[in-house]
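Budget justification note: compute hours in this period were largely spent on complex prediction jobs such as the one shown. Inputs:
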Amino acid sequence: MKMDMSQYLDVFLEESKEHIGSLNQKLLDLEKNPNDIPALNEIFRAAHTLKGMSSTMGFDDLADLTHHMENVLSDLKEGLLLVNSGVIDVIFKCFDRIQMMIDKIETEGSGEVDNRDLIVLLENVKSGNYEAAAMLEERSAEVKPAVPAQEAGQSYQEAFEFNEYDLTVIKEAESRNLNVYYIKIHIDEQCMMKAVRAFMAFKAVEEDGEVIKSIPSAQDLDEGRFENEFEMLVISGTDADELNSKLGSITEVNVVEINKIDAESIGAAKPQTNAAPVAVDEVKSSQVEADDTKKTTHKVKQTVRVDIERLDNLMNLVGELVMHKGRLEQIGASRKITELNETMEQIDRITTDLQSVVMKVRMVPIEQVFNRFPRMVRDLAKELDKEVDFLIEGKETELDRTVIDEIGDPLVHLLRNALDHGMESPDERMKSGKPAKGTIVLRARHEGNNVYIEVEDDGAGINTQRISEKAVEKGLISEKEAEAMTRDEAIELLFRSGFSTAKTVTDVSGRGVGLDVVKNKIESLNGEIFVDSRHGQGTRFRIKLPLTLAIIQALMVSVRGEIYAVPLSSVDETTMIRSSDIKMVQNQEVIMLRGNVLPLYRLGQLLFVPGEDNDEEMYVVVVRKAERQIGLVVQTLIGQQEIVIKSLGKLMAGIPGLAGAIVAGDGYVRLILDIATLF
Amino acid sequence: MEDTQNVRFKGAVGNDDEIQVVAFQLGREEYAVEILNVQEINRLLDITRVPRAEHHIEGVVNLRGNIIPVINLHSKFNLQASGNEDDKRIIVFQFDDVKAGIIVDEVSEVLRLHTSDIEDTERVYGSITAEHIRGVAKVEGRLLILLDLHKLLDL
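Corresponding output:
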């Protein structure tokens, strides 16, 4: 009977995505530095986990692919295979496929994909290795009859990657008068149970010794994942002949080679490697390996996955708590109970902390989004034949989950633009006296209640001349306008919808692929986008975002006895006026504000609040709606407040002028105005 | 296979043709909703008016940090409010994933109704309100109007 795994599906998907993210990242590291053993170990570990998870979940195609990938990775790790761009490309391809399969599992519930093409690729990569290995064996076999220790050492040297730990073990063995042998064993082609024979060989050796290393690894041998030969490095008290006869007595096992080696020959042949300790004692492999990887992995933070809905609930409850605390305070104040008031102060502090902790829980590092970019930039740079260094700064910057989910696409746009249009080709760069390799920086940082994300390149910069030409051509502006245009205004054109589509822009050296889309997205997140550009020196896009969409600063106003919240982001200023200040222009109430005519709207009328505005003094909240200023007449200003936005629910969705609601400190529900749709 | 089990299960409980309802007063009429949809019954909470909403939406209330719309059936069905302010209640119900409250003049009781006692609306009502009604039940000389929450919320 098949277990029902559906309840684990979410966890599986989430974790797989994380693993893919880290795989991509580490593989890039490895590509940059082929000797980066910790990165390799991490890739191996992630691939292994992925394999385990997918086979548990019953996604056999995924498990199969990861299994083959793991084989190649394992060879890389054992030093049987060299890290080169060919291998890396194949593995990247695998990652893409895995990503695709996971997406498929998420959307369709099944991950059935034919991966034979990739598996063949992987096999080829792996067998390339076997050919090399075979050649190596031949060479050592030829010289076998009188192998000088030195030469023999050389060949093991190539087969086995000795690290410092191995050397120490070997030296230690020598100091205890034990011998170290390199043994190569061939198992009969007809043999049905290779794994068993290998196990018996291990057993025979271990009667009076220890296997320090084997190729393939002990685990692979156990599972029969090897051709007909394997090699091992053995520390033993017995001499070579005895070992030879012991091993030879096992049916279907032939000793091809047995050589004594010593630490000196290895040490001499290969001076100090910087390799970090890889799995060493393969006999106790699993355990040792686990310990080992722990050492080399970055410290993994302990985390718990929580449904975001639960966090919202928690937030609600904390809100309630704060509210009732307010009531208690009132009681304390009206009855003049000093002890109560003192305790309330404590509670006040705690609830404030509690609130900020709960807010923080919803924050996630922007790393989640940033991590997928290095890979994208690399691929794109290759595609476009450009050389680029991609730097990420401040990836630990935290943002609300809701913002994180939305910010990915705009950043993809900006990065693609920077590479495609901003960055020149290496030749052009050389000509203008810049290094052939360009730099793109993706940067995130906190500033007050905002997060800034910047995409900066040291490319050609924006050619405003070309932009205005293009805009005239497209009929967006007249030639006269183009001439009168300042640099900033010209850059602003990039964000106009209809300025460009991908195709038309590739032949302009400006930018503009979907920048209007980017701008809209950012604005829908209550953010802003700015551009700095210097001709010939590069371009910088800066995105300013609120820390969270759930909490905003609002100005509380009252009108005819009702209280509303106006998002501070759309408030320019407030001012007090007298009813005599109001003038009429074409049946529209206006006031003069520093010489400008400001149209007035009475909030009470807009919202059909019962009653009249008949105060002599009133307040005007100057709000901005699409570059236009409008005065909103209210009775009084209550003050500025940080509010947690709640939706009005399905039943009242889409009421023009209302953005949502809040539960105010006094327990009443107050409505949040949406300036964009209010008028 | 499944069907027979279902039937047996229902048979075991023995009231396949019986439903439980919460009965309440709206003006001079008596209404009822199925108890399974009712989450709780509250005293009148402070209702915040929602401008520009449909006229039968009285406003929103804060129910332990959740914002819940309150429907005024008096204005929807064109009924006069009656009874004591003190007796007024908000019945909060949940239907699918929508939570909402209705203001009622008085909650009378929880009743068991035989489905056979419920009459189809077309035979009884001809008015606009009929589309929000599942039927009319006769209980001991009283007439209970059974609300169809699905239609009521499909505003």
